[in-house]
Recover the amino acids of this structure.
């Protein structure tokens, strides 16, 4: 019986050694074989998919294949000879490595196909939704890996979750404030009302630069005093935050060259027409619209007036800024028509000058 046991063990060790040698020598040839098969049999889309998604992580995939073969060999060991002692660690390593490999493949697929499709569509995308989708995909991969490992090793995952749930409730009651702050940090990460180095203001009068955003709290360096204010993230999710850095405005300079000198009494009329023509355009700060007049003499010696109109276009995204610039061009046409109805003729210098002007802090 001992001879039979020794013979069986020797055969298993020989098989393990043989497989190990095949894996070592095969690892040098298999990538070349895969590339040859792709060049010979695969269509261009399949080959492109492999190069973009699988290619950067093919070494990790080879590790998963090695662990898979070792797992199969471990299952051949009889239970009386310590199958669980060998198989469980190998299976756990295979589960973790395979999960990481699938997560990396999804990341490559997400970057090269999903994001590329969103950009090519030309439509406005919700970055927070894309981040959340990637996070949910990774969480789903982990959950599937845990369930598969539990099912293949006869682990009562329902009972384990129930026991962990009871213990989790006790921990949650004991660390309720800490959990609220951690959840607040997750909300700030997904919503992103501000980032590091942004200047923000809080309802209680705190104003300063965001130094860091942690899991539990956010540190704000106050302007003027230079003190450090530490605010729990759970509180920030319930406050009205004014982000000064996030605000953006563009000064649009429009020059109106009149054919005659505009009297002082008519200048107020011109200014009112200009303001009324842009009052219904969302994003144009008409309260800060500035109209200044100056008189000059042209090359022919004729006295004329020029009006410099300064519009402030508010916005935080390039798409909205482009749209509001187009609306401002329409407003210029409205201004021209209304002033001509009063018998005031002029030319608008082209092009309109746009100057980026961050909101003054």
């Amino acid at each position: 019986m001992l001879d039979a046991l020794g013979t069986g063990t020797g055969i298993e060790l020989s098989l393990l050694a043989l497989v190990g040698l095949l894996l070592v020598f095969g690892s040098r040839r298999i990538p070349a074989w895969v590339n040859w098969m792709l060049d010979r049999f695969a269509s261009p889309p399949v080959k492109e998919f492999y190069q973009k998604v699988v290619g950067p992580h093919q070494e990790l995939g080879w590790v998963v294949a090695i662990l898979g073969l070792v797992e199969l060999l471990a299952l051949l060991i009889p239970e009386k000879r310590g199958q669980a002692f060998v198989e469980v660690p190998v299976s756990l390593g295979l589960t973790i490595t395979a999960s990481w490999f699938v997560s990396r493949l999804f990341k490559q697929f997400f970057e090269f196909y999903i994001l590329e499709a969103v950009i090519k569509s030309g439509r406005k995308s919700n970055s927070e939704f894309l981040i959340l989708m990637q996070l949910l995909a990774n969480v789903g991969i982990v959950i599937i890996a845990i369930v598969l490992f539990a099912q293949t090793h006869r682990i009562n995952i329902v009972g384990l979750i129930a026991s962990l749930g009871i213990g989790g409730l006790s921990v949650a009651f004991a660390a309720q404030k800490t959990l609220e702050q951690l959840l607040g940090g997750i909300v700030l990460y997904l919503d992103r009302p501000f980032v590091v180095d942004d200047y923000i203001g809080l309802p209680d009068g705190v104003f300063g630069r965001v130094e860091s955003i942690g899991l539990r709290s956010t540190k704000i360096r106050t302007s003027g005093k230079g003190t450090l204010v530490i605010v729990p993230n759970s509180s920030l999710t319930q406050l009205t935050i004014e982000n000064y850095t996030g605000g953006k405005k563009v000064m649009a300079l429009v020059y109106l060259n009149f054919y005659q000198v505009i009297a002082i009494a008519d200048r107020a009329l011109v200014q009112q027409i200009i303001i009324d023509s842009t009052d219904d355009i969302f994003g144009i700060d008409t309260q800060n619209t500035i109209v200044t007049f100056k008189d000059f003499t042209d090359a022919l010696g004729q006295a004329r007036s020029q009006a410099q109109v300064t519009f402030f276009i508010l916005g935080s995204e390039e798409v909205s800024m482009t749209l509001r610039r187009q609306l401002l061009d329409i407003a210029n046409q409205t201004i021209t028509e209304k002033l001509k109805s009063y018998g005031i003729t002029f030319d608008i210098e082209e092009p309109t000058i746009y100057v980026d002007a961050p909101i003054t802090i």
